Fold each of these.
Amino acid sequence: MASEIKPTGVERHFDAAEMLVSKTDTKGRITYCNQLFRTIAGYGNKELLGKPHNCVRHPEMPRAVFKLLWGALEAKREIFAYVKNMSNNGDHYWVFAHVTPSFDADGDVVGYHSARRAPNREVLTKVIQPLYGNLLELEARQSNRKAGLQDSSNHLASILEEKRTTYDQFILTL
């Protein structure tokens, strides 16, 4: 889906009181999505169910952020992140996402749940967009994708170390 779509540069917005919700299985395939998610992403329910959640991934999202996200989920931890997603026509929308594993009665991860709110515009403009721009630039400098991801991840880690904080603390104090 998203890899065939070209970004338009047009941003879609949703109200601060609204929430996009989706659930996936452990492979990241969508098992549930609410109406607002479908509306802002521009897809019907049948188009999304069973599809990988990254079908809405915008190409201007640093892979280093997803590396952190999946690392937290694999460690059975929740994570918060600012994410730029892409709608079915190439428009984009920013979210402040809370992603958490879902557990069965035995404590095993059976999927993931994500609730996404409209982001704080000032944080987005002053912190997140410049940071993600730097991370993307580092990822693009390397012809080897793994090396680019490593450079980007190292840069983010150095920023956090300089601030003497963790990624979670950094994001939650913005």
Note: Helices lie at 35-41, 45-48, 63-74, 121-141, 145-162, 167-172.
Amino acid sequence: METLTLNGTAVAVNAEGYLTDMNQWTPELAKEMAAEVNIELTPKHFEVLNWLREKQREGVQLSIRKLGNSGIVDIKTFYQLFPGGPLKISSKLAGIPKPASCV
């Protein structure tokens, strides 16, 4: 287990940079992590992140298709919000484990 320090706060992460305890997540932490991948989080980003966190708590297996059917964003917008691996990046920013569907 590794530790990531962002904005003076230390959080435990795995080797791929995903939080090991989703309870350590804060919106401020997400903003700091997003800045590292050149994403400035908007309210729409947070709608996606909060939906992902809610589904993770419910034990739902996450996929791009499920998010596209969520009514929050369509798949095209999801790719625009989180370019370069939308589910992988958004999951990391949401403080949840990497979905099994991500390689």
Note: Strands lie at 2-6, 9-13.
Amino acid sequence: MTGDVILQNAPALLLAVPMLAAFATPFIGRYSAVARNIWVIAAMTLTAAIGFILAYDVFTAGTVIYTFGALDPASALPLDSGGIPIRIIFTVDAMSAFMVIIAAISGFAVMLYTMASESKSSGKDGFYALFLLLIVGIMGMVCTGDLFNFFVFLEINSLAGAALVAYRVDKGVAVEAGLKYAVISTIGGLFVLFSIALLYGQYNALNIAMLASSIQYTALDKIALVLLLAALAMKAGAVPMHFWTPDAYSMAPGSITALLVVASQASLYGVFRVVFTLYNVVLDYVTIGWIIIILGILSMFVGVTMALVQKDVKRLMAYHAVSQTGYMLLGLGVGLAVLGQQAALDTYGIVAMEGGIFHIINHAMYKGLLFLTAGAIIYRTGIRSLNKLGGLGHSMKWTMIFFIIGALAIAGIPPFSGFASKLLIYESVFLFSPVLSIIAMVVSILTLASFVKVFHSIFMGPALPEFAGVKEAPLPMLVGMGILAAITIAFGIAPELVVDTIVTPAALALVDQGGYIASVLGGA
């Protein structure tokens, strides 16, 4: 009975649990820090469990519709709606469920990590409240079925993210980074809100399925598309709108940076939802597809070349995050460019999309792992400059092993997960344009060179006297890193299982605009 209630209301509980936990956290923290820590871990664990239950339901039974306030939440068109989806509706298809899995895994691993990484810091009540609100924003963005609520959750995501970036102040530098993140997020939010107004003014609807069934690709629709793509690509950290990323990623606490990667991916999800689901058949596939491909190539190349010259370990990793976003844009861009050519779509378009989507979860795992290892190093040494670090392999062996796993994965070395998703991208994109595939491979080689330099700078060499007292990272931090490392290895060893189970359904859900519309408006 309880299981049925949870399953039936999983989309609502996925937000209600972390939201209620966030508001209660400061009150509990006033009385007991231990109780607060247990509370936030329990809330994140329950949220992750609900996320997995929801995802399992979607992958086994199809798209889940949840209408808030309706007698039958599974119906998007209750009898009193007049045939129009007017209530708040969550539409969780395979692509949404895929993103929920990413947020659930990352949120749980990072929450465990923070139990030690934030133990010496003050203001933990607010920190954990913002952490849980960030989870709310991410989950809401990937589950909602209407544009206005997408904007609301985007704002929750942005406000919580900006506050967490600035949370440790760090002589004002972190505040500056947080302010920059907030300004960029506000501009992006205004773009999204203005585009929503343009669409609502024409079609009198906010529901994505309703809009997708009505959209005509008028001049105003094209303006709305440009604004949405610009805002969401900027929030995703794509070049040339990536300038906030190095500051925000490098100044946020290590644990939060790992979660900001997922927050940025929620905006990337928004890009794909807009072009594949909202516009789809009315789009000029080739033009928009190539725009996304160019953004991807620029992100890959600019990100990796900027990373090569960095001396700050977190700033270097931030530029690599920009570079890896390019692979996802490239894969999905190729899929969109051939969306109108069934033969090309069947031959390599879907595979390119699978590669890009697979890379999203791989990136969240190994890049999150790398940011957590950087956080562990800074936690123990207080130093982030590569020129001042060295010899830590003697005292932080587990952290070194986790770093190696993350570094080999991001460089696309077998048998780690990054290799599996990049191979799908290389092979499929080569059939579309050999030049693009070669560029992607060259970027991977540069990525490997960059991380060899980082590994040598941090871990190799004799033990330095200034680090004589440095110990391995605390157990909760190792457990958090271990979870992401284990998934990185597992996804590399059995990529077919991951692709067949969750990646291919997500790719097919994206291209099936008719199925998305029918799941909400009927006719499936």
Note: The first helix runs from residue 2 to 8.
